[in-house]
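Entry 14. Structure prediction run on the chain below.
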Amino acid sequence: LLLAALGAQAAAGDFDPYRVLGVGRSSSQADIKKAYKRLAREWHPDKNKDPGAEDKFIQISKAYEILSNEEKRANFDRYGDAGESQGYSQHQHRQFHHFHEGFYFDESFFHFPFNSERRDTSDEKYLLHFSHYVNEIVPDSFKKPYLIKITSDWCFSCIHIEPVWKEVTQELEALGVGIGVVHAGYERRLAHHLGAHSTPTLLGLINGKITFFHNAVIRENLRQFVENLLPGNLVEKITDKNYIRFLSNWKKENKPHVLLFDHMPVVPLLYKLTAFAYRDYLSFGYVYVGLRGTEELSSQYNINVYTPTMMVFKEHIDRPADVVQARDMKKQLIDDFLSQNKFLVVARLANQRLFQELCPVKKSHRQRKHCVVLLTGEGDKFAEAYEAFLTFAVANTKDTLKFVHVYHDRQPEFADALLMDEEKYRGKSAVVILERRNNAGKIAYKTVEEAWQGSKEDNFILLDLLDQLRTDPGLLSSETVLADLNDELAPVFLIRWLYSMLDYISDCWDSLFHSNWREMMPLLSLLFSALFILFGTVIVQAFSDSSDTRDSPPSEKEEAATKTEKNDASFGKESNRIPKKGFVEVTELTDINYNSNLVRLRPGHMNVVLILSNSTKTILLQKFALEVYTFTGSSSLHFSFLSLDKHREWLEYLLEFAQDAAPIPNQYDKHFLERDYTGYVLALNGHKKYFCLFKPHRSGDEGGTPGSGEDYDSSLHTEARGKSSCSPGSRSLKNKLHKLSFWMERLLEGSLQRFYIPSWPALD
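Output returned:
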């Protein structure tokens, strides 16, 4: 073990950052940075597939880390070490001490403490848990961005980036960036929720949205990553040409406007982070005092070009409401300055949030806060009254007193609740003093009797009421409940939808190029499944249509097909090609399936039976399928056919119970054996033992209603055997089932006559 430690120390001593980067000891920082960028691009593991590329890239990063830091570079030039270890002799005792505590290798060689107790404890204060992340970090990300690191034990790369991470986090935290660390070994749920499938992983969180970091872990890249998280329109560049327009927008935006004067050509990150934190209250502009075209602006406000200056402008753009100057602008100084200037002197109540902040609910008698509300309108007609109210507010603003105004045409419910006599104040401004009692909208108020015109008398009356209110809280004698205010500044639905769509497209674009395959698999699976279903359906439909066109007869359009469980030879020869569309399953009623298809039929189900003969089988089945096709969607209907040549006696027995609708002639009638029942349709209810009867439509009679009780003899063919009654033409046979679909509709409606029988006879 001693020899191994000595060998490790010797190997550590052979590491030369100058040789790794290929630069000399007198090289400038620009040359070192240029060499690092060139080698980093060449040896990056994502681009270089060489097995040793990762190790080489780590050496390049470590060499640049040493040489880019002047202190570490000086230590290396003096002692041959960057300061992480001052030679083997200085910490030999420490190595053996940790050897007794646990198996330990020299850190200076591996840059990795195998004993977890040796690791830097600076990350402990940043450790995140799932509930803490969801309940506190995500809501807070709407005020400031977060930089989060996902790490784990036994992670060489995690330890390698720790020096850079520690330096950057200290710098960014001082600027107002939130820092978080997630230990994947102990917080697997949170790591999975963040989408981190490997360590180390760096990501940014802003407005509840996660963005992954994909570049080399160096200070410049991390700062740029955090800056890119921020929206691009937070700070507007201000010059002599646009400063008047910028400051004049206070009325439209209902916000104070802040100008920062500095000699930096780019907007400092601190200022951008501040603009993001206060974006709901303030609008920000940046003036680069070294730029030509800002002389007039600097001269008008008497700016010291050598000292950063921050000014807040409210209702008056010719002079700032507050100013702060400091050679080194710190976050705490800026926060204190801006928190005191978040609102206009007489802010407009444009939404419920402003109302709650400017007029908070009283918590105790000592913490009473009153709001003086000017109910006015827009336009030049009300400008004089507003200016007088603003002047009064500037002279009388206190911590316990806030002055606001409301446009009664934009907040009609608010104005109507406070003005009892609307006719008295129509077309005029009114002043109301109110105090919020609870969060449900209950207030106590008093309306100044006379309309506000801004005269001296109006000022005296209002000032007297405020003095009385200081000693007599009961002056607010009226009470009411206010509804929530309309959000005047909210964008319309179409714009909100457009912004949401752009954010979604941006997320998809970022995921497509930067996310790993595990993250992309659900999206790709969904996409390819949709494409497969879409194109598969189109292809199948195209082949199906071409097959139907080829198989269908040229003289006829689409016909419904029939399927029989028992097809004899004659039917197979005479039937046309069976189309694939319009499929109807028709089963022959035989001795084998008689019980299951009729006698033991489930309650609520009916069997619709077509009566035919061998000679009429083909034509009648085709016509029957066409007529009943639209009713095949009902699961309670079954379709069958009965051979008249085999089961004539069974049919005649059933028809005896329907003599009023179809009387059976005397058996001694000479035409008894010649009765033609082909084309009859019976709807059989096996459970309740009844049937409904459809009689064939007689050729030439278009006005009859089948099954409605017409004379039985009118629908029977009485010609002698051997004539057209036994072998009718296809046209007359098809006409027999004419209007069967109407009969089926009446069957489903339950309006057909029912013929009950005591029991079902045997089919044989």
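Residues 517-551 form the longest helix (35 residues).
Filed with the rest of this week's runs.
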